[in-house]
Design a protein that fits this description.
five-stranded antiparallel beta sheet; Enolase-like, domain 1; four-stranded antiparallel beta sheet; 14 strands; Uridine Diphospho-n-acetylenolpyruvylglucosamine Reductase, domain 2; 267 residues; globular; 12 helices; 35% helix; alpha+beta
Length: 267
Protein backbone atom coordinates (compact mmCIF):
# COMPACT_ATOMS: atom_id res chain seq x y z
CA UNK A 1 0.00 0.00 0.00
CA UNK A 2 1.34 3.40 -0.99
CA UNK A 3 1.16 6.05 1.72
CA UNK A 4 1.67 9.80 1.47
CA UNK A 5 2.72 10.92 4.94
CA UNK A 6 2.80 14.55 6.04
CA UNK A 7 3.09 16.45 9.30
CA UNK A 8 0.50 18.83 10.68
CA UNK A 9 1.02 21.74 13.05
CA UNK A 10 -1.41 24.40 14.21
CA UNK A 11 0.30 27.76 14.55
CA UNK A 12 -0.37 29.59 17.81
CA UNK A 13 0.08 32.99 16.16
CA UNK A 14 1.17 34.62 12.94
CA UNK A 15 4.81 34.91 14.02
CA UNK A 16 4.99 31.16 14.64
CA UNK A 17 3.35 30.44 11.29
CA UNK A 18 5.88 32.64 9.53
CA UNK A 19 8.77 30.95 11.34
CA UNK A 20 7.49 27.48 10.47
CA UNK A 21 7.04 28.45 6.85
CA UNK A 22 10.54 29.93 6.69
CA UNK A 23 12.07 26.79 8.16
CA UNK A 24 10.11 24.46 5.87
CA UNK A 25 10.20 25.77 2.28
CA UNK A 26 7.98 22.96 0.96
CA UNK A 27 5.31 23.44 3.65
CA UNK A 28 1.81 24.69 2.80
CA UNK A 29 -0.49 26.96 4.76
CA UNK A 30 -3.90 25.55 5.62
CA UNK A 31 -6.91 27.75 6.33
CA UNK A 32 -10.15 26.74 4.59
CA UNK A 33 -8.41 24.03 2.57
CA UNK A 34 -10.91 24.22 -0.29
CA UNK A 35 -8.17 23.98 -2.91
CA UNK A 36 -5.29 22.40 -1.00
CA UNK A 37 -7.13 19.36 0.38
CA UNK A 38 -8.66 18.25 -2.96
CA UNK A 39 -5.29 18.79 -4.61
CA UNK A 40 -3.63 16.54 -2.05
CA UNK A 41 -6.36 13.91 -2.44
CA UNK A 42 -5.68 13.82 -6.17
CA UNK A 43 -1.92 13.43 -5.48
CA UNK A 44 -1.22 16.65 -7.34
CA UNK A 45 0.54 18.03 -4.27
CA UNK A 46 2.32 16.32 -1.41
CA UNK A 47 3.60 18.91 1.07
CA UNK A 48 5.63 17.46 3.95
CA UNK A 49 4.03 19.87 6.44
CA UNK A 50 0.67 21.58 6.75
CA UNK A 51 0.70 24.74 8.87
CA UNK A 52 -2.80 25.44 10.13
CA UNK A 53 -3.46 29.19 10.33
CA UNK A 54 -7.24 28.98 10.65
CA UNK A 55 -8.56 30.87 13.60
CA UNK A 56 -5.58 33.21 14.06
CA UNK A 57 -6.93 36.50 15.43
CA UNK A 58 -4.34 38.47 13.42
CA UNK A 59 -6.04 37.30 10.22
CA UNK A 60 -9.67 37.85 11.23
CA UNK A 61 -12.12 40.70 11.33
CA UNK A 62 -12.53 43.87 9.34
CA UNK A 63 -11.94 47.56 9.96
CA UNK A 64 -12.45 50.91 8.30
CA UNK A 65 -9.21 52.66 7.38
CA UNK A 66 -10.12 56.05 5.96
CA UNK A 67 -11.66 55.39 2.56
CA UNK A 68 -10.68 51.72 2.63
CA UNK A 69 -12.31 48.64 4.11
CA UNK A 70 -9.65 46.23 5.37
CA UNK A 71 -10.74 42.58 5.49
CA UNK A 72 -8.74 39.90 7.30
CA UNK A 73 -7.40 37.07 5.16
CA UNK A 74 -9.09 34.38 7.28
CA UNK A 75 -12.61 35.73 6.75
CA UNK A 76 -14.72 33.07 5.08
CA UNK A 77 -16.75 33.80 1.97
CA UNK A 78 -19.90 33.56 4.09
CA UNK A 79 -18.55 36.09 6.57
CA UNK A 80 -17.72 38.52 3.77
CA UNK A 81 -21.17 38.03 2.25
CA UNK A 82 -22.96 38.57 5.57
CA UNK A 83 -20.79 41.37 6.98
CA UNK A 84 -22.86 44.53 7.66
CA UNK A 85 -19.81 46.66 6.90
CA UNK A 86 -19.19 45.01 3.53
CA UNK A 87 -22.86 45.07 2.61
CA UNK A 88 -23.05 48.79 3.43
CA UNK A 89 -19.75 50.04 2.00
CA UNK A 90 -19.07 47.62 -0.89
CA UNK A 91 -22.29 45.67 -1.57
CA UNK A 92 -20.83 44.34 -4.83
CA UNK A 93 -18.17 42.49 -2.84
CA UNK A 94 -20.76 40.96 -0.52
CA UNK A 95 -22.81 39.90 -3.54
CA UNK A 96 -19.75 38.33 -5.17
CA UNK A 97 -18.93 36.34 -2.02
CA UNK A 98 -22.50 35.10 -1.68
CA UNK A 99 -22.27 33.23 -5.00
CA UNK A 100 -18.95 31.46 -4.52
CA UNK A 101 -19.32 27.67 -4.67
CA UNK A 102 -22.00 26.19 -2.43
CA UNK A 103 -22.82 26.79 1.27
CA UNK A 104 -20.17 24.32 2.46
CA UNK A 105 -17.47 26.04 0.41
CA UNK A 106 -18.61 29.49 1.53
CA UNK A 107 -18.41 28.55 5.21
CA UNK A 108 -14.90 27.09 4.91
CA UNK A 109 -13.12 28.87 2.07
CA UNK A 110 -11.34 32.12 2.90
CA UNK A 111 -10.75 35.44 1.22
CA UNK A 112 -6.99 35.21 1.69
CA UNK A 113 -6.76 31.67 0.41
CA UNK A 114 -8.59 32.55 -2.79
CA UNK A 115 -6.53 35.68 -3.45
CA UNK A 116 -3.22 33.94 -2.71
CA UNK A 117 -4.10 30.94 -4.88
CA UNK A 118 -5.12 33.11 -7.85
CA UNK A 119 -7.11 30.40 -9.59
CA UNK A 120 -7.87 31.54 -13.17
CA UNK A 121 -11.60 31.15 -12.51
CA UNK A 122 -11.80 32.47 -8.93
CA UNK A 123 -14.05 35.43 -8.13
CA UNK A 124 -12.10 37.47 -5.58
CA UNK A 125 -9.15 38.34 -7.87
CA UNK A 126 -11.58 40.25 -10.11
CA UNK A 127 -12.79 42.28 -7.12
CA UNK A 128 -9.24 42.92 -5.88
CA UNK A 129 -8.14 44.14 -9.30
CA UNK A 130 -11.39 45.89 -10.15
CA UNK A 131 -11.45 47.85 -6.90
CA UNK A 132 -7.73 48.63 -7.03
CA UNK A 133 -7.27 46.96 -3.66
CA UNK A 134 -3.99 46.45 -1.84
CA UNK A 135 -2.83 43.07 -0.56
CA UNK A 136 -1.29 43.33 2.92
CA UNK A 137 1.25 40.66 3.81
CA UNK A 138 3.56 39.96 6.72
CA UNK A 139 6.17 42.08 4.93
CA UNK A 140 4.55 44.72 2.75
CA UNK A 141 1.52 46.14 1.00
CA UNK A 142 1.22 45.24 -2.69
CA UNK A 143 -1.12 47.07 -5.11
CA UNK A 144 -3.49 44.87 -7.08
CA UNK A 145 -1.98 45.82 -10.43
CA UNK A 146 1.31 44.22 -9.36
CA UNK A 147 0.08 41.35 -7.19
CA UNK A 148 -1.30 38.89 -9.76
CA UNK A 149 1.51 37.72 -12.03
CA UNK A 150 0.14 34.65 -13.87
CA UNK A 151 -1.86 31.44 -13.59
CA UNK A 152 -1.81 30.43 -9.91
CA UNK A 153 1.04 32.94 -9.44
CA UNK A 154 1.31 36.09 -7.33
CA UNK A 155 3.96 38.38 -5.87
CA UNK A 156 3.95 36.39 -2.61
CA UNK A 157 7.35 35.01 -1.63
CA UNK A 158 7.46 31.36 -0.47
CA UNK A 159 7.67 32.37 3.20
CA UNK A 160 5.34 35.39 3.00
CA UNK A 161 1.82 35.26 4.43
CA UNK A 162 -1.18 37.22 3.21
CA UNK A 163 -2.67 39.05 6.19
CA UNK A 164 -5.49 41.18 4.79
CA UNK A 165 -6.87 42.93 1.73
CA UNK A 166 -7.62 46.65 1.78
CA UNK A 167 -10.49 47.56 -0.57
CA UNK A 168 -11.05 51.23 -1.48
CA UNK A 169 -14.74 52.12 -1.14
CA UNK A 170 -16.07 52.86 -4.65
CA UNK A 171 -18.81 55.24 -5.76
CA UNK A 172 -20.53 52.24 -7.31
CA UNK A 173 -19.55 48.75 -8.35
CA UNK A 174 -20.97 45.40 -9.44
CA UNK A 175 -19.91 41.91 -10.42
CA UNK A 176 -21.56 39.74 -13.06
CA UNK A 177 -20.61 36.09 -13.42
CA UNK A 178 -21.47 33.38 -15.90
CA UNK A 179 -20.87 30.37 -13.66
CA UNK A 180 -20.05 26.81 -14.57
CA UNK A 181 -23.23 25.02 -13.40
CA UNK A 182 -21.28 22.22 -11.72
CA UNK A 183 -18.34 23.93 -10.01
CA UNK A 184 -19.81 27.45 -9.71
CA UNK A 185 -16.41 28.76 -10.78
CA UNK A 186 -16.56 31.65 -13.24
CA UNK A 187 -16.44 30.76 -16.90
CA UNK A 188 -16.35 34.54 -17.18
CA UNK A 189 -16.80 37.06 -14.39
CA UNK A 190 -16.54 40.83 -14.82
CA UNK A 191 -16.13 43.31 -11.97
CA UNK A 192 -16.81 46.96 -12.76
CA UNK A 193 -16.06 49.79 -10.33
CA UNK A 194 -16.53 53.54 -10.65
CA UNK A 195 -14.37 55.47 -8.21
CA UNK A 196 -13.28 59.06 -7.68
CA UNK A 197 -10.14 58.18 -9.65
CA UNK A 198 -11.91 56.66 -12.64
CA UNK A 199 -13.38 53.38 -13.84
CA UNK A 200 -11.78 49.95 -13.54
CA UNK A 201 -12.94 46.75 -15.23
CA UNK A 202 -11.46 43.36 -14.34
CA UNK A 203 -12.28 39.96 -15.80
CA UNK A 204 -11.72 36.49 -14.37
CA UNK A 205 -12.33 33.03 -15.85
CA UNK A 206 -11.70 34.19 -19.40
CA UNK A 207 -7.89 33.95 -19.47
CA UNK A 208 -5.06 32.22 -17.57
CA UNK A 209 -5.03 35.04 -15.02
CA UNK A 210 -7.25 37.91 -13.96
CA UNK A 211 -6.78 41.01 -16.11
CA UNK A 212 -8.05 44.54 -16.64
CA UNK A 213 -9.88 45.68 -19.78
CA UNK A 214 -8.52 49.14 -20.68
CA UNK A 215 -10.75 49.53 -23.75
CA UNK A 216 -13.86 49.09 -21.64
CA UNK A 217 -12.50 51.34 -18.91
CA UNK A 218 -11.99 54.14 -21.42
CA UNK A 219 -15.47 53.70 -22.86
CA UNK A 220 -17.07 53.75 -19.42
CA UNK A 221 -15.09 56.82 -18.42
CA UNK A 222 -16.83 58.64 -21.25
CA UNK A 223 -20.26 57.13 -20.54
CA UNK A 224 -20.98 54.83 -17.61
CA UNK A 225 -23.76 52.91 -19.32
CA UNK A 226 -24.20 49.34 -20.61
CA UNK A 227 -24.41 50.73 -24.13
CA UNK A 228 -20.87 52.09 -23.85
CA UNK A 229 -19.43 48.56 -23.82
CA UNK A 230 -22.12 46.75 -25.79
CA UNK A 231 -20.25 46.89 -29.09
CA UNK A 232 -16.74 46.29 -27.76
CA UNK A 233 -15.48 42.99 -29.12
CA UNK A 234 -12.85 41.16 -27.10
CA UNK A 235 -10.05 39.35 -28.92
CA UNK A 236 -10.30 35.59 -28.35
CA UNK A 237 -6.54 35.17 -28.69
CA UNK A 238 -5.13 33.91 -25.37
CA UNK A 239 -8.52 33.13 -23.88
CA UNK A 240 -9.16 29.91 -21.98
CA UNK A 241 -10.67 27.07 -23.96
CA UNK A 242 -12.05 23.77 -22.66
CA UNK A 243 -15.03 21.43 -22.95
CA UNK A 244 -17.21 24.05 -21.26
CA UNK A 245 -16.60 26.79 -23.80
CA UNK A 246 -14.36 27.89 -26.65
CA UNK A 247 -12.10 30.92 -26.57
CA UNK A 248 -14.51 32.72 -28.89
CA UNK A 249 -17.43 31.93 -26.59
CA UNK A 250 -15.59 33.29 -23.57
CA UNK A 251 -14.59 36.43 -25.48
CA UNK A 252 -18.28 36.99 -26.29
CA UNK A 253 -19.25 36.40 -22.66
CA UNK A 254 -16.85 39.12 -21.48
CA UNK A 255 -18.89 41.77 -23.27
CA UNK A 256 -22.17 40.27 -22.09
CA UNK A 257 -21.06 40.15 -18.46
CA UNK A 258 -19.58 43.65 -18.63
CA UNK A 259 -22.94 45.01 -19.80
CA UNK A 260 -24.72 43.20 -16.95
CA UNK A 261 -22.20 44.44 -14.38
CA UNK A 262 -22.61 48.07 -15.45
CA UNK A 263 -26.40 47.73 -15.40
CA UNK A 264 -26.24 46.23 -11.91
CA UNK A 265 -23.95 49.01 -10.70
CA UNK A 266 -26.46 51.60 -11.91
CA UNK A 267 -29.47 49.82 -10.39
Amino acid sequence: MITYPFAYQRAANLAEAEALLGANPEAKLLAGGQTLIPTMKQRLASPPLLIDISGLHELSGNRRDGERLVLGAALTHAEVAQSPEVRTLIPALAELASHIGDPAVRHLGTLGGSVANNDPAADYPAAVLGLNASVITTRREVPADKFFTGMFETMLAPDEILRAVAFPVPRRAAYAKFANPASRYAMVGVFVAQTTEGVRVAVTGAAPSVRRLPMMEKALEASFTPEAVAHIKIDADGMNEDLHGSAQYRAHLVTVMAKRAVAAALA
